[in-house]
Amino acid sequence: MEVQEDRLHAFVGKMLGDLGGAFSVPTVRLGHRLGLFQTLAERGPLTAEGLADAAGGLTPRYVREWALAQAANGYVTYDEAAEAFFLSPEQAMVFAVPDSPVYLPGAFDLVAAMIEGEAKVETLFRKGGGVRWGDTAGCLFCATGAFFRPGYVNNIVHGWLPALEGVLAKLEAGATVADIGCGMGFSTVLMAEAFPQSRFVGFDFHAPSIEEARRHAQAHGLEGRVRFEAAPAKEIEEGGFDLVTAFDCLHDMGDPRGCAAAVRRMLRPDGTWMVVEPIAGDRPSQNMNPVGRLYYNASTMICVPTSLDQEVGEGLGAQAGEAKLSDVIRAGGFGRVGRAAEGPFNMVLEARP
């Protein structure tokens, strides 16, 4: 097969861009932990020496190399004449505004967790099986929570819940809500703060996540209306819920059909199940795009190994698609399933008995 030079050069250019992004992961994480992005957002433009001092007395030579690396990344703006660095408003939205819908430092931590778990996943390729959630890397559940939090802050209360038929009125009047797969409790606490007349319980099978969630609720003064319990979805014995939510977790479950059946039992006859999942088409060719690329890679390293470690091990993967997910939900006894809302990263399915 003859190599076409123009295609080769284009492909090498793409690879250089990809490698540049990969090389940036440790330096972005350092900048986040050391407060360098935040300092530039609040006090820039600053020289390397000024940034080192303002960030708490760091070593200027390291800070200069870091800042030049971020300028080369396009993550920081460099004024060569003044030898100063600053963040544009757009750069600040990504690296220095925690409640921004595009705040992404958590994504870099997630990449690091995936790399940390590489050897364990390689073993699975050879021998099969899975890796228990939380065991892949040191704090995978922390990185996952940080990655999803900005999307939840900007969408759950203002976009996703209002898209559900009749649910908002119930929450405002006083509803009972179960948040399955709640992780560290970001989604549960956000809903509880927005709807003070309602009561919430978060469930997750990962005990360390539940411990963090309880601390989170305590820090927000919500102990009276929010509680967290460590339990797999199929083993939840409570019922009578007006709303059950599942944020970015159904595809990670070993037995999502069993979860659907459990949710059906938990709901009141007029209740609603809101299932938030990664945006995906029903055919792989529909997911060959930047978002699908992220999700397929994360699914290889995290989602599929997590599912295959559990009972049944269906292994839906992060790009299951609406048709497959709807089939899983209907298998649990739901008669109505449809897409209520969507965004660049998620789709929201509404299921009713």
UniProtKB/TrEMBL annotation:
Domain Methyltransferase: 172-279
S-adenosylmethionine-dependent methyltransferase Rv2258c-like winged HTH domain location: 28-94
Pfam family name, one: Methyltransf_31
Record-annotated membrane-spanning stretches: none
Name used for this protein in its record: SAM-dependent methyltransferase
Any one Gene Ontology BP term: methylation
Keyword Transferase: yes
Keyword RNA-binding: no
Keywords, sorted A to Z: Methyltransferase, Transferase
InterPro entries: Methyltranfer_dom, SAM-binding_MTase, SAM-dependent_MTases_sf, WHD_Rv2258c
GO molecular function: methyltransferase activity
